[in-house]
TrEMBL record:
Domain N-acetyltransferase stretches: 3-173
The keyword Acyltransferase is assigned to this record: yes
Residues that bind acetyl-CoA: V81, G82, V83, R89, R90, G91, V92, L93, T94, S118, E119
Protein name, UniProt field: Putative acetyltransferase
Provenance organism: Saccharothrix australiensis
Signal peptide (UniProt feature, chain positions): none
Length: 402
C-alpha cells in the first residue's frame, strides 16, 4: 500500500489526537478534545495515511517567540509529532518534516521553527539544533538569602485561580518581550497550560496561585509525612516577575512554606536564585535540552534577531535537508542589525545548519559547537567574532512544553 500525505480538516481532530495518543502510549480521553480544539490549526497539521488509516502526523502552532534584542517574532511551533507503533522506521516522520519545512520555505511563512523533542536523537537530521536548556532546580526549604537581598515589605497573597489568571496574563505579556524563548499565548494556550485536570497531577495537589503586585507564581505540592516530620515537595509551575525584588519576594514566599522539604522548579538555566542564596551550593541543579530550533531560511531568519557586536563573515552553510540554504552567505552585522546575502566569496567559517539553530537564541556558543565539530573556522579570529555576535543578554528559556 502506498503512503499518502495531506493536511487535515476541522473534523479530523479526533482521529489525529487518537494517533498522537497511540504514538505516545497514552490513553485517549474524549473530554480533552475540547481543550485541544482551541490549539488545533488543521491546515497546518500534516498526516500520513496508509490507505484510509491515519498512521502518522505532526502539527504547527502559529506563535511568536522572543528573540535576542528584538522582541517577539513569528515562529512555527512544531508539536504533536507521532507515528503509530507498527508503522515506524519507514520514513513517515521524514515525510512530515519535509512537508513542514519545505512548505514554510515555499510559502515564505515563519523563517524559524522550534520544538521540544521527546528524544534527543530525532531532530538533528532535519537541521534542528539544541537552542535552549532548562535547569532542574531543587532548593531546601528555608534556604537563607544573602544579607542585603531586598524582598520588600509587600505581602505575597495566595488567591483563587479566577482572580489570579487575568493578572498573570497581564504580567506575562509585559515581561514577554524581554524574555528570550518565551512564546505568545492565546486564551486557548493559557487554558491548556493551566488546565489542572486530576489525571495530569500525578498525585500532586491542584495548582496554587500566588500574586505579588509585580509578579506571580503557580505551584503544586506532593505531600510527604515521614516520622521525622513533613517534608513535601513544592513543584513550581511558573514564576514570573517584572522586578528583581518581586522575583526574590516570590521565591522567599515559596521557600518559607510550612510542611515543605524541597522547592523544585524546571527553570531557566540562568535562574538568579543561586545568586540570592547564602549557600549557593544548597541549590542542586541539572540541565537538559528544552527548545530545538531550525533556521528555515538563512537569509530571512538571521535578520530577525539583534546582535551584541558587529561582524562581517562569509558562512559556508551545510544543509542537506533544506538545500536552498546550502552554500555561501555573507552575514554583515552593523549596529546590531544583520543582513544576509548570497556570495561566491571564500568562506570564513563552515557551519552545519544545526549550529545556526543552536546559536540563534544565544544559548549555545559557536566556539563550543566548533569543538563539537558542527562549525569549522578557515579565517583565524572569525569564529570568536561570530560566536560573540550570537550571544544574548539572557539564557534562552521556554517556560512551557507545547
Ligand atoms: C515535537 C514533538 O512532538 S516530539 C515527539 C516525537 N514523537 C514521539 O516521540 C512519539 C513516539 N515515536 C514516534 O512516534 C516515532 O518513532 C517518531 C516520530 C519518533 C519517528 O517516526 P518514524 O516514522 O519511525 O521516523 P522515520 O522512519 O521517518 O525515521 C527517520 C530517521 O529518524 C530515525 N529515528 C526515528 N526515531 C528515532 C528516535 N526516537 N531516536 C533516534 N533516531 C530516530 C530513524 O532511524 C531514521 O534514521 P535514518 O534517516 O538514518 O534512516
Amino acid at each position: 500500500m502506498t503512503l499518502t500525505l495531506r493536511t487535515l480538516a476541522h473534523d479530523e481532530l479526533r482521529p489525529f489526537q487518537r494517533l498522537v495518543d497511540s504514538a505516545f502510549l497514552q490513553d485517549s480521553r474524549e473530554e480533552l478534545l475540547e481543550r485541544w480544539r482551541g490549539l488545533f490549526e488543521p491546515e497546518r497539521h500534516h498526516a500520513v495515511f496508509d490507505g484510509d488509516e491515519m498512521i502518522g502526523g505532526g502539527g504547527i502552532q502559529t506563535r511568536a517567540i522572543t528573540v535576542p534584542g528584538n522582541g517577539p517574532q513569528p515562529v512555527a511551533a512544531v508539536t504533536s509529532v507521532g507515528v503509530k507503533p507498527g508503522h515506524r522506521r519507514r520514513g513517515v516522520l521524514t515525510r512530515v518534516m519535509t512537508a513542514q519545512l519545505h512548505g514554510l520555505h515555499e510559502e515564505s511563512r515563519e523563517a524559524l521553527a522550534v520544538l521540544w523533542s521527546s528524544e534527543a536523537g530525532i531532530y538533528g537530521r532535519y537541521g534542528y539544533g539544541m537552542a535552549a536548556e532548562f535547569t532542574r532546580l531543587s532548593v531546601p526549604r528555608g534556604a537563607a538569602f544573602r544579607a542585603g537581598v531586598v524582598t520588600g515589605d509587600e505581602r505575597v497573597r495566595e488567591v483563587p485561580v479566577d482572580e489570579a489568571m487575568p493578572v498573570m496574563q497581564a504580567l506575562y505579556e509585559r515581561a514577554r518581550p524581554g524574555r528570550t524563548g518565551w512564546l505568545s499565548r492565546t486564551d486557548a494556550h493559557w487554558a491548556h497550560q493551566f488546565a489542572d485536570e486530576e489525571h495530569d497531577r500525578d498525585g500532586l495537589t491542584a495548582y496554587r496561585y500566588v500574586l505579588h503586585s509585580r509578579g506571580y507564581a503557580v505551584y503544586r505540592v506532593k505531600h510527604d509525612w515521614p516520622d521525622r516530620g513533613p517534608r513535601g515537595e513544592l513543584h513550581v509551575r511558573e514564576l514570573v516577575a517584572e522586578t528583581d525584588e518581586a522575583y526574590a519576594a516570590l521565591y522567599r514566599y515559596l521557600l518559607d512554606l510550612d510542611h515543605i522539604g524541597e522547592v523544585k522548579f524546571f527553570t531557566a538555566s540562568d535562574d538568579p536564585v543561586v545568586h540570592l542564596l547564602e549557600d549557593s551550593r544548597s541549590a542542586l541543579r541539572s540541565r537538559c535540552d528544552s527548545l530545538w530550533a531550525r533556521v528555515v531560511d538563512v537569509d530571512r531568519a538571521l535578520p530577525l534577531r539583534r546582535y551584541p557586536s558587529d561582524v562581517d563573515a562569509v558562512l559556508d552553510v551545510h544543509d542537506a535537508f533544506c538545500p536552498w540554504n546550502e552554500g555561501r552567505w555573507r552575514l554583515t552585522v552593523e549596529g546590531g542589525e544583520a543582513s544576509v546575502r548570497r556570495v561566491a566569496d571564500e568562506p570564513d567559517v563552515a557551519v552545519d545548519v544545526r549550529a545556526l539553530g543552536a546559536a540563534f537564541l544565544g544559548g549555545a556558543r559557536l566556539t563550543a559547537l566548533a569543538r563539537g565539530q558542527q562549525v569549522r573556522e578557515f579565517t583565524p579570529g572569525a569564529l570568536n567574532r561570530l560566536s560573540h555576535a550570537f550571544l544574548g543578554d539572557r539564557e534562552p528559556h521556554c517556560p512551557e512544553v507545547f
